[in-house]
Amino acid sequence: MTFGNKLLQLRKNRKMSQDTLAEKLNVSRQAVSKWELDETLPDTDNLIKIADLFFVSVEYLVNVDVYDVKRTNEFRLQNIDKFDAVNFLAAVSSAFVSSIALIYYARIGCLQFEGYKDVERFMSIYWEERYYEVINEIVIVFFLIIVITVSLLIAIKIYKKYR
Asked: Fewer CB within 10 A of the end CB, N or C, for the chain?
C-alpha cells in the first residue's frame, strides 16, 4: 500500500475532507491531492504532522511493506493531549457532582410538599413566606441543569475526538 493510499484511507476514516486536512497542515488542497495520487511526497515536517494527526507512526506512512495499523490504538493512547484528559475528567466530575446536587434539591422540594393535601393553600403560603428563597432554588436548579448539559457535551466532544 502506497503513502497516497494510506493517507486517503486515514483521511476518509476520520471523515475529513482534503480541504480540512490541508488547513490543519497549513498547505494547499492541491498538495494533499498530489500526495494522495502519489505524485509527490510531503516534506518531513508535514509527514510528522500527518502521523501525529492520524495517530500512526511515520514508518507506517512511508514504508510500503507495513500493511497493518495495529499500533494505531497504542499511538492514540500515547498521544492523548494532557489538557484534553484533564478537561474530560473535569467535565465528567462536574456533571456527576451537579447531578447529585440536582437530585438533592429535587428531594428537598418533594419533602416540603409531603403531608399537604391542599396544594393550592400550601403554594400560596409557601410562595408568600419564601418568595426569594423559591426564586433562588429555581435559579440554582436551572443553573445545575445547564452545568450538567454543558459538562456532558464537552465530555462527549473530547471522547469522540479520541475514539
From this structure: C
- Separation between Cα atoms, residue 141 and residue 136, nearest integer Å: 9
Contacts of 47 (CB under 8 A, 6+ apart): 41, 58, 61, 62
In angstroms, what CA-CA distances link 101 with 7, 98, 132, 134, 158? 48, 5, 20, 16, 24
Cell numbers linked to 36: 494522495
Residue 4: which residues within 8 A CB-CB, separation 6 or more? Answer: 35, 36, 37, 38
Distance, in Å, from the CA atom of 7 to the CA atom of 37, rounded to the nearest integer, reads: 10
Grid cell in block for residue 22: 490541508
Torsion of CA 30, 36, 42, 48, to 10 degrees: 120
pLDDT top residue among 140 and 75: 140
Q: What pLDDT, on the 0 to 100 scale, is given for residue 67?
A: 53
pLDDT score at 128: 63
Count other C-beta atoms under 10 Å from residue 32's C-beta.
Answer: 27
Rounded Cα distance, 34 and 117, in Å: 77
